[in-house]
User: Fold this.
Amino acid sequence: MWRIIPKEEKFFNMFQVQADHVVKSARALVEILENYSIETLDAKAAEIRTLEHEGDILTHDIIRKLNQTFVTPFDREDIYSLASRLDDVLDLMEGTVNRMKMYKIQKVTPELITIAKIVLQSSEEIARAMGKMHEISHIADHCIEINRLENEADLVTRQIIAHLFENSKDPIEIIKWKELYEYLELATDKCEDVANILEGIMLKNA
Amino acid sequence: MWRIIPKEEKFFNMFQVQADHVVKSARALVEILENYSIETLDAKAAEIRTLEHEGDILTHDIIRKLNQTFVTPFDREDIYSLASRLDDVLDLMEGTVNRMKMYKIQKVTPELITIAKIVLQSSEEIARAMGKMHEISHIADHCIEINRLENEADLVTRQIIAHLFENSKDPIEIIKWKELYEYLELATDKCEDVANILEGIMLKNA
Amino acid sequence: MWRIIPKEEKFFNMFQVQADHVVKSARALVEILENYSIETLDAKAAEIRTLEHEGDILTHDIIRKLNQTFVTPFDREDIYSLASRLDDVLDLMEGTVNRMKMYKIQKVTPELITIAKIVLQSSEEIARAMGKMHEISHIADHCIEINRLENEADLVTRQIIAHLFENSKDPIEIIKWKELYEYLELATDKCEDVANILEGIMLKNA
Assistant:
């Protein structure tokens, strides 16, 4: 029953673990926003901070392994970019809660929850794609969906900011909320980068 | 009369088509700004959106071809970066009209037209350089001019924003216009990136 | 007494010179801020502008040499990234003084000096690491310290901006200072990128 695990398995496995970190962090973020209170923000954000920290260590592990491995399952650069973009998604979610604390946000808008939910959907698609990296041709649908979600987030965020400028006359509120919306929307851009890298890997191995 | 078209020809040709998209979009942008009205913005912006969309498809085609080609005329990475930066220029021009709509801009400032005209000049230099990629040593002058235009845009934009802060006392107006100026100016940075990649290609093939 | 200087020596040497530019610029910036007056800003900023300009030429020289060298001491990409990120640090310091002029800053806050001093510390660590590139295993401690300084800058900047929003009720002041703080803090991010590239080189050569 002894089985040789080829090197690439370890990379696959590491990326799956990282995608799980991303999904867990996105779920924690949606939960924080849906039941928001400034008093509990710091305590609740601890999970997101832990996931970001664990993700950071894993990113370093992937890059260390990459630097020590002669033969990799995919192009070295793709592995490097994939690890970096997943790390970016984790950073952006932690950055969002950090900014909410920094701006002493008292009440969350439904608009921020809307964007967070798109980030969660994108994260789940990434995790599904990562689960199919052994049969890479099966990931195409997930990549298409991640691209669609990015377009949706882009459009929705522009409408949200347009409303913000129409309805708020307080420039300081505009500065804070514009940044929160744009910052969290960036996470869907990074998810799209992940999808594009996966598509590239798929094509190279077609 | 039968002629073998080497693979690289297709890359050259694709980049020329993409540079044409960029020039057409920059021309459309200048035209929109010079004859601006919020009522016609959406209809007029359609051309820029179409060019961005066609550019997007072409970028994907270039990268797909790159992933399926063993021998490329230049370094794979240079082709990838070149395609990505040209795509960025198209995105930034579309993003500018999107932001004008988002901010319900009623009247365009001459300052925004000034920046748009520098973007147009840079785009035209890129198209000229792309037309000479078979004899890559001839592109140096265009690259120098693109670098000069980026410096000019940088300086001009700083002066424009300095005036904005001096002359406007409305913070919400400042937020909107500062972003529009800076955002469009970014297009000249991406043009400079294109020039630098072309220069690198030139040196490697010297 | 005749000695062959291998090619890599020239790269080592160029990076050391560039790191010196960075340290000198950071020192000049701290000096400008500690003895600030809007009247002398332009004259005093000349040194930072000169260092940025010399750094620009050196960056081009490194990339030119890279494009003409078949065998490099490290991966080509690492050399390219290292040159680009050091160039970014110089750009960000020049950009900071440019923005102070643009915003007609009359009086510097102690908070901006705090961030500038962290940038200076990071720069000095980079210079120390660069001095040990022949024995690359010795640079680890410097890289760890640069990462620590980036975390510190991140946390400090968030506290500074939180205070800015609490204590200032003038949105235009908030826009100016928020940008200055965040912009200069970016320099520590680029220093961290430098450290990460150096760590990667170290691992590949372990």
Remarks:
- The domain at 8-204 of chain A is CATH 1.20.58.220 (Methane Monooxygenase Hydroxylase; Chain G, domain 1).
- Chain A touches chain B at residues 158, 161-162, 165-166, 169, 171, 174-175, 178, 200, 203-204, 206 (CB under 8 Å).
- Helices of chain A lie at 7-34, 38-68, 76-102, 110-130, 140-167, 171-204.
